[in-house]
Design brief:
mainly beta, Lipocalin, 1 helix, about 160 residues
Length: about 160
């Protein structure tokens, strides 16, 4: 009986060793520093995220769309922002009657290092609110994807 159990145990052990290793889940953003500059809605516009001590702050740099500011670069700082696990949200302050509200997720992207574009990717729903001269607010909603821009690599530390 003992010989038979030893034979079965040896067979089970050999079978377990022969099994392929379980696939590793792709890295998640959860506990990593997602700080950096991301793409925003249009070329040349950016989203800056700063994560420090679990708090998120930042701003959007965009081009003005109104007659009074058309084409001008405008920095809109966050009024409030939060990161809980992979869930991220922010609302910007109002400038020239425009503000943004975002709700989405942050995840590791396809890039293998921070020196490549897309190391982190933020996906979700962006709402742009606009107040006209008669104080009527309109909202435009769209699904977006913001990609982390590559970080400069210090060639001296090499």
């Amino acid at each position: 009986m003992r010989a038979r159990l030893a034979g079965i145990a040896g067979f089970v052990l050999a079978a377990l060793v022969a099994l392929p290793a379980p696939a590793q889940a792709p890295p998640q953003a959860g506990d990593q520093d997602i700080s950096g500059t991301y793409s925003f809605v249009h070329d040349g516009e950016t989203l800056q995220l700063n994560l420090e001590d679990g708090r998120v702050d930042g701003w959007v740099t965009r081009f003005g769309e109104d007659e009074s500011d058309k084409g001008q670069r405008i920095d809109q700082f966050f009024d409030k922002a939060a990161l809980r696990g992979d869930q991220i949200s922010f609302t910007t302050k109002v400038i020239h009657g425009v503000w943004f509200d975002f709700q989405g997720t942050v995840a590791r992207g396809p890039a293998k290092s921070r020196s490549e574009e897309g190391y982190f990717v933020i996906r979700g729903t962006l709402r742009q609110y606009t107040t006209d001269a008669s104080r009527k607010v309109t909202a435009r909603e769209r699904q977006v994807e913001f990609r982390l821009f590559p970080e400069e690599v210090d060639k001296k530390s090499g």
